[in-house]
Amino acid sequence: MAGSCSGSCGTPTKEAQQAAAAQAELAISRSLGKIKNKILVMSGKGGVGKSTVSVNLALGLAEKGYQVGLMDVDIHGPDVVRMLNLKGTIQPPDSPDGLVPPLKYNDNLKVVSLEYMMRDRDEAIIWRGPLKIQAIRQFVSDMDWGELDYLIIDAPPGTGDEPLSVAQTIPHVKAVVVTTPQKVALADVRKSINFCKTVKVEIAGVIENMSGFVCPHCNETVDIFSTGGGEALARELDLPFLGKIPMDPKVVMAGDEGAPYLTTEVDSPAGQAFAKVIASIVRRLPPVMAPPMGLNVAPSGGCSCGSGGCAS
Question: Rounded distance, CA 224 to CA 20, Å?
Fold first, then answer.
């Protein structure tokens, strides 16, 4: 009889769709509730070394002993897995309702990327917006991130579906904007900054990448390109400036070879610059869990209820 199956013939009912959406939101909230700091690394244009910054930032934080997740939401051009030389593939959860384990770089660093979920890593991803949005939401809800001090999110260039999905899915995410010193890059990075203002994402700071060139022979930094543009922009817009990272051919080689730069060139000018940027981020975003909404936290020595009238 027509219409008698009440949604059991293959098309979910409206109530079933609403229940599934509510379950997904609950899973996202549960996952994010265990993560202290969420950092979206973004740029206004391609070619500024954003993924290199994301990988070395995550690695540097992990090397300092923090629990770190690295989530690659560059759906069409994921590079993080190759830059870390991770060879594993996705493993099913232990139970039907379980979470999927991310790839582990070491005991302190977990990685999720669409690339490690594909049988053929050279296959082109030809997806429209809704599929990309759903994938990013599942990166949060379906992965076993566990307790993290920092979740670093590597977004593709620009202000499209991926950074917008992150902003809408992950409350209280902070943005780190990567730029090069040149005027063209600075013009594009202003768009990223305006994007953050529009979607109400706080900017944790600006990083000036490729600031000068490290000579491979003498290891000195030479300003063959312009320098200081990112710092000047941060000062003009009253944004925190996290530091300058010089261009070093060894950084490119490390990424191509899957030997992360901070594990091989710690004492180089670029390695020292990365260390300063990481220290700046830890100062601005310490690994402390924010209290739940509505909790009245008393000052040291006071009672926890906030009334001041009970014994603590």
Answer: 55
Rounded-to-integer distance, Cα 44 and Cα 158, Å:
5
Place of tokens 């490690």: 116
Q: Residue 132 in contact with residue 166, Cβ under 8 Å? A: no
Q: Tell me how many degrees the CA angle 272-60-240 measures, rounded to the nearest 5.
A: 70
Cβ neighbors of 276 (< 8 A, separation 6 or more) are 243
Q: Kindly report the number of other CB atoms within 10 A of residue 36's CB atom.
A: 17
- What's the CA gap between 126 and 13, in Å, rounded? 29
Mean pLDDT of 179-191: 87
Reported pTM: 0.84
Q: Dig out the tokens for 45 from the structure.
A: 């244009």
Residues in contact with 79: Cβ distance below 8 Å, sequence separation at least 6, in sequence order? 51, 72, 115, 255
Q: How far is CA 209 from the centre of its chain?
A: 17
pLDDT digits 0-9 by tens, 85-108: 888 777 778 777 789 999 999 999
Q: In terms of C-beta density within 10 A (0-12 exposed, 13-18 middle, 19 or more buried), how is residue 310 classed? A: exposed
Reported as type and span, the H/E element at residue 152 is strand 148-154
Q: Where are the beta strands (DSSP E) in 201-306?
A: 202-214, 221-222, 241-247
Taken in order of first residue, the domains within the chain and their CATH numbers are: 22-284 (3.40.50.300)
pLDDT at 310 over 50: no
Pair 74, 53: CB distance under 8 Å: no
